[in-house]
Amino acid sequence: MNRNSEKSWLGDLQVTGAALAFSTAGLFTGAIGADVWTMLFWRGLVGGVVILGTILWLNDASGRSIGRAGLVVAACSTIATICFIHSLRRTTVADVTIIYATAPFLAAAIAWLWMRQRAGRVTLVAALLALFGVVLMMGQAASTGNLVGNLLALAMTVLMALMMVVIRRNDGVSMVPASCLSAFASAAIALPLASPIPTSGSAFVLLVLFGVQFGVGLLLLTIGSRRIPAVRTALLANLELPLAPVWVWLAFNEVPSTMTWLGGAVVCAAILLDTFRGDAGAT
User: Fold this and answer.
1) What is the pTM of this model?
2) Position 133 in a domain
3) Residue 12, C-beta contacts closer than 8 angstroms, at least 6 positions apart
4) Domain total for the chain?
5) Which of 238 and 269 is assigned the larger pLDDT?
6) Contact 146/90 with Cβ under 8 angstroms?
7) Which positions ≥6 away from 77 have C-beta within 8 Å?
8) Is residue 5 very low, low, confident or very high in pLDDT (cuts 50, 70, 90)?
9) Domain for residue 165, yes or no?
10) Which structural domain, as residue segments, surrounds residue 76?
11) Residue 283 lies in a domain
12) Residue 281, pLDDT score
């Protein structure tokens, strides 16, 4: 196995691990009775400690100057995190994960607009198909009062796609310190609106576990994104698509609507089309 293929294999494995970790977010938000800002505070604080501990353990001094790209990554991650947690409380987990499934195509579009890296025809067709699937879901959301949550999920998806492209474009720079900064920044933003003292020991345990989930997922995503193209990162991140609604369905019996199933099927078809017939390595 040559060095490039080894890097690609490790990147695939790390991003897959991140997807598995992030797929449990809906489970935590449903189980934790705290308000959104309190969850954001503890998730960011504990997640930041996990990432900082990793940096210190590895004795990584590369983050002394993260530069403009690192600040962009940190800003995207911070705002996306806030949008993500709010969206989970304002719409269904299924809607959030299916909207996030459009990230590969948004990453391809950003790479083309920014770096003039043109996607293949199959990817463009898949992008339009995925967009149609999201439109189906948005129409249902408008009638069920979930539109704000779906728009927040869409904003989160755009920011995450941009973050993946920036990390890949600057693959010679460690963005782990930027991820650490973003975790602590989300906690700092949430603190004035949070009630940081948990109401019970069990609530505290859940909040800490949610933070560990965030730290591990963000760390794996950041490291893995350096090793593989941005579009492939986004495609692998979509492994949480079939898992997230399943956890919530099993735990809380939250059954997705008919239009969510239909829109999700369209988006899944787009992902499969691009995965097996497109060029995921464009960016």
Assistant:
1) 0.79
2) yes
3) 224, 228, 232, 236
4) 1
5) 269
6) yes
7) 159, 163, 178, 179, 182, 183, 218
8) low
9) yes
10) 11-277
11) no
12) 47
Q: What is the DSSP letter of 64?
A: G
What Rg value do the Cα atoms of the chain yield, rounded?
18
> Mean per-residue pLDDT for 26-36?
87
Output the pLDDT for position 214.
94
Taking only the tens place, the pLDDT of each residue in 34-86 is 899 999 999 999 999 999 999 888 776 555 567 888 999 999 999 999 999 99
The stretches of 59-146 forming alpha helices (DSSP H) are 67-90, 93-100, 103-115, 121-144
Tokens for 152? 């927040």
Q: Which residues contact 185 (CB under 8 A, 6 or more apart)?
A: 44, 74, 78
Distance CA 99, CA 102 (A): 6
Classify residue 116 as left (phi > 0), alpha (psi -120 to 50) or beta: left
Largest interatomic CA distance in the chain: 54
**Quick check: is 86 in a domain?**
yes
Query: Contact at 8 Å (CB) between 101 and 191?
Result: no
| pLDDT of res. 186 | 96
Buried/exposed code over 132-158 (b: 16+ C-beta within 10 A; e: otherwise):
ebbebbbebbeebebbebbbbbbbbbb
Query: Which tokens is 50 given?
Result: 């996990």
